[in-house]
Amino acid sequence: MATTYPQIVLFGDSLFQGAADLVDGFCFQAALQSQVLRRLDVVNRGLSGYNTSNALSVLPQIFTAPGPGVPKLEYLFVLLGANDACVPLPTNHQGVPLGKFKENLARIITHPNIVAHKPKIFLVTPPPLDEIRIKVLDLANGHPSSTRKAKISASYSEAVRQVAAEHPGVTLVDLWKALMDTAIAKTPGFNPDGPALGDPESGVRGYLEHLLPDGLHMSSEAYQIFYRLVRDQVGSEWAGTADEDRVGYVLPDWRLAPWLEEDAHLKGKNL
């Protein structure tokens, strides 16, 4: 049987699907894979357009219980909610009510196929929404109004925080806060005590323009902020060890491989 590598799975919507793209010299998935190379495989299961109900329906096709030839699920990152937060429109049916969204998230992270692997689970809040920008694009695409609202989207990010808090052992990654804090810090003169950046009530996009170019999906800079949030959460089992460059390798370092003993014996010298 072929050797399998333990996995980090990125499970979510287009925000994870886009994590595989190389933009402006940075790729979130590649950065994470480089960090865990030879120890873990980073598997992208970002599914553009999916909400939590869609994700639940395909979950058994993505995650199977442990068994012969089944890679161990070591880390699971879940980033869903951007589509669940869509408002009901005749032209868009992606939305999932807030209570159902929370229920779906809980069912995902407690699904038997996942729990059986005993992974470290991270729930990621969806990023902020630049409603000012997305409304322009939605109207141009034939929607009668904006498909998403900044305040509603923020409530779904808050729901992710609540679900993480309700499940011991689950780690929250507050992407909404990290991106909004960055945008506020880089928007001179903006008052954070009022309506948020990207909210039509504030009328200010500010630096969100650079982090969320289309109002929803993340720029290279935003993915770099995301990566900085998670990089120290992965690989603590070998970080700081004397041989951290080799500890945890699935297949041995060439200098430690068993065939070297045979080689040395044949050559009559140590390698």
From TrEMBL:
GO molecular function, one term: hydrolase activity
Keyword tags: Hydrolase
Pfam families listed in its UniProt record: Lipase_GDSL_2
Alphabetical list of SUPFAM superfamilies matching this protein: SGNH hydrolase
Annotated ranges, domain SGNH hydrolase-type esterase: 10-225
Protein name: SGNH hydrolase
Protein's organism: Canariomyces notabilis
